UniProtKB/TrEMBL annotation:
Pfam families the record matches: Response_reg, Trans_reg_C
DNA-binding region (UniProt annotation): 123-221
Protein name: Response regulator transcription factor
Domain OmpR/PhoB-type: 123-221
Annotated keywords: DNA-binding, Phosphoprotein, Transcription, Transcription regulation, Two-component regulatory system
InterPro entries named among the record's database cross-references: CheY-like_superfamily (IPR011006), OmpR/PhoB-type_DNA-bd (IPR001867), Sig_transdc_resp-reg_receiver (IPR001789), WalR-like (IPR039420), WH-like_DNA-bd_sf (IPR036388)
Signal peptide residues on this chain, from the entry's feature table: none
Domain (Response regulatory) ranges: 2-115
Organism: Teichococcus globiformis
Length: 242
């Protein structure tokens, strides 16, 4: 999961960072202009915007993102409890509005619920073949047995499952894993995928992740009987880019 946080209150920002960093890659914006630039540049799973940011307000950032047809889910963190302010945020395209004081744990729960809905999942558990991944606990199981993964392997599998049936480029994986900071060479993705496949092969799910030559990788939901594919590559492969 990749998250953009634009919150200027030091205490709240620290609280949110401690909560959100284990959930995935966390980028921060110190003002509205930076939030708008990052929101346009990277493929975030969700954006948390304080309504009263310096420079461009959070509401103006949201308006411009939606005017640019960016559909990334956005939660507005508001200082106001007035219904008309909540209505204004929702009318601009916010997916949710949270007013102070609020619990940081509730923020995470609402984020996960919104992400599940926008990715087409109603539950926190994703599945493909005999494999299940829980977004809340970050646990992976095959046939009810835990599958031990490194942090990078989990992040790659999570991205593949959230975008199941889409071809993901190596650059998309780099962006997801490193957030544009100190990125290694692109071939490291092949290494991570290879190690992940080895673990899946031992669990009899070695064909779950396929290589689309010259494009990237795709996760297919193989049916339990006969190995039939749920996402055929006809008439054309859809491609997700960073």
């Amino acid at each position: 999961m990749r998250i953009l946080l634009a919150e200027t209150d030091p205490a709240l920002s620290l609280q949110l960072k401690e909560l959100l960093k284990p959930a995935g890659i966390l980028d921060e914006a110190s003002d509205g202009e930076e939030a708008l630039e990052l929101g346009r540049l990277y493929d975030y799973d969700i954006i948390l915007l304080r309504g009263t940011l310096p420079g461009l307000s959070g509401h103006e950032v949201l308006r411009r993102l939606r005017a640019g047809r960016l559909e990334t889910p956005v939660i507005i963190l508001s200082d106001s409890i007035r219904p008309e302010d909540r209505i204004h945020s929702l009318a601009l395209g916010a997916d949710d509005v949270m007013s102070r004081p609020f619990d940081a744990g509730e923020v995470l729960a609402r984020m996960q619920a919104i992400i599940r809905r926008t990715k087409g999942y109603s539950e926190s558990q994703l599945s493909a073949g005999g494999l299940t991944l829980c977004l809340r606990s970050r646990e992976v199981q095959v046939g009810g047995r835990p599958l031990s993964l490194t942090a990078k392997e989990y992040a790659i599998l999570e991205l593949l499952m959230l975008r199941k049936g889409l071809v993901l480029t190596k650059q998309a994986f780099l962006d997801h894993l490193y957030g544009g900071m100190d990125e290694p060479e692109m071939k490291i993705i092949d290494v991570f995928i290879c190690n992940l496949r080895k673990k899946l092969t031992k669990a009899s799910l070695g064909s779950l992740i396929e290589t689309v030559w010259g494009r990237g990788y795709i996760l297919r939901d193989l049916r339990s009987e006969g190995g039939a594919r749920s996402f055929p590559l006809q008439p054309a492969v859809r491609q997700a880019v960073a």
